[in-house]
Specification:
This protein has 132 residues and is α/β, with parallel strands linked by helices. The chain is built from 2 helices and 3 strands.
């Protein structure tokens, strides 16, 4: 998810025209992301940078996640906002680590729709066609 934030521009020279095309992602989606929080600290991991031009990021996490606690996404969200990066964060109170996209009666099963709405709001998806 954060390969953009850790890339090194100009590390290799341009070999052909494809090298002139930006590899910057337009957006990122992090669902129950880990390794974003520094151990023993309420800071983002020391290897993560949020440079100018970091793309908008959507984060979703389960509040009961014991594999990757939600603090990882919370701290990243706060760091993104502090850096002026458009970001959205959804914490689903009773969801664990692997809620995925399967339908259920739990609120976390709506994260994909919330993400699609966010992508539309950011201008990455067109509104659904109206059928009559």
């Amino acid at each position: 998810m954060f390969s953009y934030a850790n890339r090194i521009d100009g590390f290799f020279g341009h070999i052909d025209n494809v090298d002139k095309i930006s590899c910057r992602p337009d957006f990122a989606i992090g669902v129950y992301s880990g390794y974003l929080k520094a151990k023993g600290s309420d800071q983002i991991a020391p290897g993560l940078r949020i440079p100018a031009g970091t793309p908008p990021i959507f984060l979703a996490h389960g509040g009961d996640d014991i594999i990757s606690p939600p603090e990882h996404s919370v701290l990243m969200y706060l760091a993104l906002k502090k850096s002026g990066v458009p970001a959205e964060l959804h914490i689903y109170a009773t969801a664990a680590h692997d809620f995925g996209v399967r339908p259920s009666d739990h609120p976390c099963s709506t994260w994909a729709q919330a993400c699609a709405t966010w992508l539309r709001h950011q201008g990455f998806l067109k509104p659904p066609r109206q059928t009559h």
